[in-house]
Amino acid sequence: MMQCFNWDTNTLNIKTNTNKTFNFILKGNKTVVCGYSATGKSLLCNIIKRYQNSSNVQTLKKYNLDNIFILDRSNKEKLAEQNHKLIIIDRADLILEKADIDIINSDTDINKYLIFSRKPLGIYLSPNYFANLEVEDNTVRLRYLFNVRGWN
Fold this sequence. Notes:
This protein has helices spanning about 40-50, 55-60, 90-95, 100-105; strands spanning about 1-5, 5, 10-15, 20-25, 30-35, 65, 70, 85-90, 110-115, 130-135, 140-145. A hairpin with a 2-residue loop joins β10 (about 130-135) and β11. The chain is of the alpha/beta class. About 20% of the residues lie in helices and about 30% in strands. The chain contains 4 helices and 11 strands; from the N terminus they run βββββααβββααβββ. About 30% of the residues are buried.
């Protein structure tokens, strides 16, 4: 069974049933993706949700998604309860409120975050942790906007 998110290497790998692969290397505990429309941000969340809710035995045998939590409007109250998870938030600018952002900002090494947003949210991060999605040869990767020494 493939662990989709590897906590030790900060990598997320998942393949869709259309052979599109998501291969992300997260730099730190929080990454904000500001990417363009139709690059795969919502697609990734929908695929993970579908796999997590699947009753298909082959899907369940293939992927271990136990350490991934997709945050949305219906489960926001569970944000503070998460422990040792990759928390993925799609359309964060539409669903996160100040209290949620405070929880994220105060989370030091308990969870990791992959946040899809179209505007700044007040999350404490160096510009080195902002990325766009890039697609090449049916593989979606993170392309970090900056890599400046001293910006931590």
